[in-house]
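Support request from a user on the community tier.

User writes: "When I paste my structure tokens into the form, the page sometimes reloads and wipes my input. The last time it worked, I copied everything first. Here is what I submitted, just in case something in the input itself triggers the reload:"
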């Protein structure tokens, strides 16, 4: 499990994907979420604006599992 550190209280799923180097630009988030299975805390998620907070776990099939840390 990889850790992604954030310096704010929350981060959007789109921002997370860029921060984790899963996508190269924020504009790719919508496309990525439509073409890949992304789970936040075990639930499938397709909203790039979904707020993530410290302790959340993001699993992206074929890429890996990430946890949000402060």
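"...and here is what came back when it finally went through:"
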């Amino acid at each position: 499990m990889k850790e992604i550190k954030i310096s704010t209280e929350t981060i959007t799923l789109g921002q997370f994907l860029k921060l984790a180097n899963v996508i190269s630009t924020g504009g790719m988030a919508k496309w990525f979420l439509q073409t890949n299975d992304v789970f936040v805390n075990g639930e499938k998620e397709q909203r790039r604006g979904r707020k993530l907070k410290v302790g959340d776990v993001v699993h992206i099939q074929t890429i890996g599992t990430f946890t949000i840390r402060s």
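Agent notes: The reload is a front-end session timeout and is unrelated to the input. The longest strand covers residues 64-69. The helical segments are 13-19, 29-35. Escalated to web team.
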